[in-house]
Design goal:
The strands form three sheets. Strands 11, 12, 13, 14, 15, 16, 17, 18, 19 and 20 form a ten-stranded mixed beta sheet that branches. Strands 2-1-3-4-5 form a five-stranded parallel beta sheet. The protein has 27 helices and 20 strands. It starts with a helix and ends with a strand. The chain is of the alpha/beta class and 635 residues long. It is 42% helix and 19% strand. α1 runs antiparallel to α2, α1 packs parallel to α3 and α4 packs across α14. The longest helix has 19 residues.
Length: 635
C-alpha cells in the first residue's frame, strides 16, 4: 500500500534496488505495491522509465512482442501495457502503427508490422469505423435493417484476417463492438427490430463467428469491458474530438489489463492453483471461536456472500484451476465444517491439497507446491488477513497474493479483477484436473508400496496412445506448449495458428500422447513435433506433462519417433535441449537413450543425434502401445 508519500518513496527505493540486484520477484512485488488502484497514476511514469533504463535480461522475464493496430490514438496505452506486462513477468516490446493505419499495415507485406515479427497483434478498431452505417446513419436503416451492412462487415473482417495470416502466425486479438452510448432512436431503439443496439449485437455475432473459424485469432470482449466500467466513465468526448483518443485516460489501465489477460495466456503464465484461507474467507467468523452453528454461511447476508464466493471458486475448479487450503486451524474443527455444515458448497474432494496447521502460511504453501509438483509462481493465495498476506509476500514474493476486502460481497470481484486464471482454451483435461490429481495420488501410493521400480511400472498397467494432431486436439496441443515447463526440451511456445501451419506442412509430423493406467485416463499429456530433413527426423517439440513423469513414457515417445523415422527411411533422429530454469528433468533425456552429443553452445543449448542404422530406442516392456498413426497395435 502507498498511503503516504514516504511509503511511496520507500517502495520506489525497494523497486530500484530489486531491479539493480536482478531480483525479479521482489521488483514485481514492489511495483504491485506501488500500483494499487488509488496510487497507480502517480507511479506509472517512474516505473516504466526505470524499466526502460534497465537491462532486464538478468530478470528472466518472458519476452513478448506486441503490435498495436488501431483506428484511434492508442499510444497512451503503451506505458500501461509495458507496466502490466512486467507485473505479469513479461518484458514487452511494443510496436505502434500509424493512426488509423490498420488496413494498410495488415494488407502490405512490406509493412512495419511484419518486419517487427510480433507474437501478439491487437486490432483495436472502434465500431463507428467498422460500421459507420449503423453508428452514424442508424436512422436510415431503422425500417430496412442492417443485414447487407453486417454481411459486408463480416466479409471485410474475414479478408483482413486472411491477409494477416499469409504473413504472420502471431496471435491476433480483435476487439468486438461497443454499442452507441446514445442510440439515435432514443428509447424507441430497444423497441425496434432494427435498432442500433440490435444491429451491433448482430455484428458482434458475425465477428465471433469469423474469429471462431480462424485459428490463433481471439475476441476481446470490448463491449463487456465498456459496459462493466460504464460508458460514461469509459469515453472522453473532449479527447475524442481533440486528439482522436476516445478512451478516458483513467480507463486505459483497465484496457491494458484486459489485453494482458490474453498476453499472459499466450505466454503460458496463467496461474494454475488457488490456495485459500478458511476463517472469514470461505465462511464468516472463526470456527475455533464461533463453533459450527456460529459461523456465517447461510441464505442471508453476510452468509450468502460467502456461499457465492465458494460457488465462484468451484467454477474455477471446473475450469481446471487446482484448489488448495492453507489455514491456521484445528484439523477436527475444519473437518466438521466440511462434513456437517449444510451450506458448504465446496467439499474435501474439490481440493487437491489441504494444509491445516498452526505453522506460517508460507510454509504451508511450500508444502502444497511440493505435493502438487508445481512452481510457487503458479500459485495465487487469497486471505482476508493483512498480516497473513504480508507474511506470504515477504517470504514467498513469487506467489501472487490477493488480500480480500473487508466486505465479503466484494470477494468475487477481487478474485477476478486481474484475470490471473484466464486461459484461451478449455480442454477435457482442464475440466477433469481435480480427478487427474487424485489419480496421480493413487499412482504415487502404488509407487510407495511397490518393491521395485519395475514392479511399480508393471502395476500401473499403462496404455499409451499415439495419434496425429487433429482439429479436436489442436487447442490442447497449443495449451501443452504454453504450460509445460519441466519435461520440455525446447520450451517452444506455439499458438493454434503455429500448429495449424505445421499440420499443413508435409514434412512435419505432429503427435499427441494419451496415457491411461489402472487408475483412469490421464488424457493428452504429451506432444511431439518433428520435421523430416533429407534422411533425418529433427525433433522440434518434445514435451510431457509432469503428471506422468517417471513412468518411462518419454522412452515410449522416443521409441515412437524411431518408428516414424524408420518408416520414412530416415537414418538418424536428432534433437536439441535448450536449458531453462525449470526444465532440469529433461536435460538428460537424449543421453539416457543413447543419443550422442554433437555440440554445445555458449548458452548451454545442446544438439543430439541417434544413428538409426546402428541402434534405436527400445519399447518399454510394461507399456501397451496403440499407434494410431501407423494403424497398428504393438504388444
Amino acid at each position: 500500500m502507498t498511503s503516504s508519500p514516504n511509503a511511496g518513496d520507500a517502495l520506489r527505493a525497494d523497486f530500484t534496488a530489486a531491479l539493480s540486484a536482478g531480483d525479479r520477484h521482489k521488483a514485481i512485488q514492489a511495483a504491485r505495491n506501488l500500483t494499487t488502484a488509488e496510487a497507480r497514476a502517480r507511479h506509472v511514469s517512474f516505473l516504466v522509465g526505470a524499466l526502460g533504463k534497465t537491462d532486464l535480461s538478468a530478470l528472466g522475464l518472458k519476452k513478448l512482442r506486441v503490435a498495436l493496430l488501431s483506428s484511434f490514438s492508442i499510444e497512451f496505452l503503451r506505458p500501461h501495457l509495458i507496466l502490466d506486462a512486467f507485473l505479469s513477468g513479461i518484458q514487452a516490446e511494443i510496436y505502434l502503427a500509424g493512426f488509423g493505419q490498420f488496413q494498410q499495415e495488415i494488407r502490405n507485406p512490406a509493412s512495419g508490422l511484419y518486419s517487427f515479427v510480433p507474437d501478439v497483434v491487437i486490432l483495436a478498431v472502434e465500431g463507428e469505423v467498422w460500421l459507420p452505417q449503423i453508428y452514424r446513419r442508424g436512422f436510415d436503416h431503422a425500417m430496412a435493417g442492417f443485414a447487407e451492412v453486417i454481411k459486408n462487415f463480416a466479409s471485410e473482417l474475414h479478408s483482413l484476417i486472411a491477409a494477416f495470416r499469409q504473413h504472420s502466425t502471431a496471435t491476433l486479438l480483435v476487439n468486438n463492438l461497443a454499442p452507441p452510448v446514445r442510440p439515435q432512436l432514443g428509447i424507441l431503439d430497444a423497441q425496434s427490430e432494427f435498432g442500433q443496439r440490435a444491429g451491433i449485437a448482430q455484428a458482434n455475432d458475425q465477428l465471433a463467428k469469423v474469429v471462431r473459424g480462424s485459428p490463433g485469432v481471439l475476441v476481446v470482449d470490448y463491449e463487456r469491458v465498456v459496459s462493466y466500467h460504464g460508458a460514461a466513465n469509459w469515453y472522453d468526448q473532449r479527447m475524442h474530438f481533440y486528439a482522436g483518443a476516445p478512451v478516458s485516460m483513467s480507463m486505459l489501465p483497465k484496457l491494458a489489463g484486459e489485453y494482458m489477460k490474453f498476453c499472459r495466456a499466450v505466454c503460458g503464465l496463467a496461474k494454475k492453483c488457488l490456495v485459500v484461507d478458511l476463517d472469514n474467507t470461505l465462511w464468516g467468523g472463526v470456527i475455533g471461536e464461533d463453533g459450527l452453528s456460529g459461523i456465517r454461511l447461510d441464505a442471508v447476508y453476510p452468509g450468502n456472500a460467502f456461499r457465492a464466493f465458494q460457488n465462484e471458486i468451484l467454477n474455477l475448479q471446473r475450469r481446471g484451476v487446482i484448489l488448495a487450503v492453507a489455514s491456521k486451524n484445528n484439523v477436527g474443527e475444519v473437518q466438521e465444517v466440511f462434513n456437517r455444515h449444510q451450506h458448504m458448497i465446496l467439499k474435501p474432494e474439490h481440493f487437491s491439497a489441504m494444509e491445516v496447521n498452526w505453522e506460517p502460511k508460507s510454509i504451508s504453501l511450500e508444502r502444497i507446491a511440493r505435493k502438487l509438483n508445481i512452481s510457487l509462481e503458479h500459485m495465487v493465495f487469497a486471505d482476508d488477513n493483512p498480516a497473513e498476506c504480508a507474511e506470504v509476500s515477504r517470504h514467498l514474493p513469487m506467489v501472487t497474493v490477493i488480500q480480500l476486502p473487508k466486505q465479503p460481497e466484494l470477494y468475487i470481484s477481487a478474485l477476478h479483477e486481474n484475470g490471473w486464471f484466464d486461459t484461451i482454451s478449455l480442454s477435457n483435461e482442464d475440466q477433469r484436473r481435480a480427478g487427474l490429481y487424485k489419480q496421480r495420488d493413487e499412482a504415487e501410493t502404488l509407487r510407495e508400496t511397490s518393491t521395485s521400480l519395475d514392479d511399480f511400472l508393471r502395476g500401473l498397467e499403462m496404455e499409451i496412445v499415439f495419434a496425429p494432431v487433429t482439429a479436436s486436439s489442436l487447442a490442447r496441443s497449443s495449451q501443452l506448449t504454453q504450460k509445460t515447463n519441466q519435461l520440455n526440451t525446447t520450451t517452444l511456445r506455439l499458438n493454434e495458428s503455429d500448429i495449424t501451419s505445421r499440420m499443413n506442412d508435409s514434412t512435419c509430423s505432429l503427435t499427441v500422447v494419451t496415457v491411461k493406467d489402472r487408475f483412469g485416463d490421464n488424457g493428452i499429456v504429451g506432444l511431439m513435433i518433428a520435421r523430416f530433413q533429407a534422411r533425418a527426423l529433427e525433433i522440434e517439440v518434445f514435451l510431457l506433462s509432469c503428471r506422468v513423469i517417471g513412468r518411462s513414457v518419454e522412452t515410449a515417445m522416443l521409441a515412437h519417433l524411431c518408428d516414424q523415422a524408420l518408416r520414412r527411411d530416415a537414418a538418424e533422429l536428432c534433437g536439441q535441449i535448450i536449458p531453462t530454469a525449470k526444465n532440469i528433468p529433461v536435460r538428460d533425456v537424449f543421453e539416457r537413450h543413447g543419443f550422442a552429443k554433437l555440440e554445445e553452445s555458449a548458452s548451454g543449448a545442446t544438439t543430439w543425434r541417434l544413428d538409426l542404422t546402428r541402434q534405436r530406442v527400445p519399447w518399454p516392456q510394461w507399456i501397451k502401445v496403440v499407434d494410431e498413426e501407423a494403424f497398428a497395435t504393438k504388444p
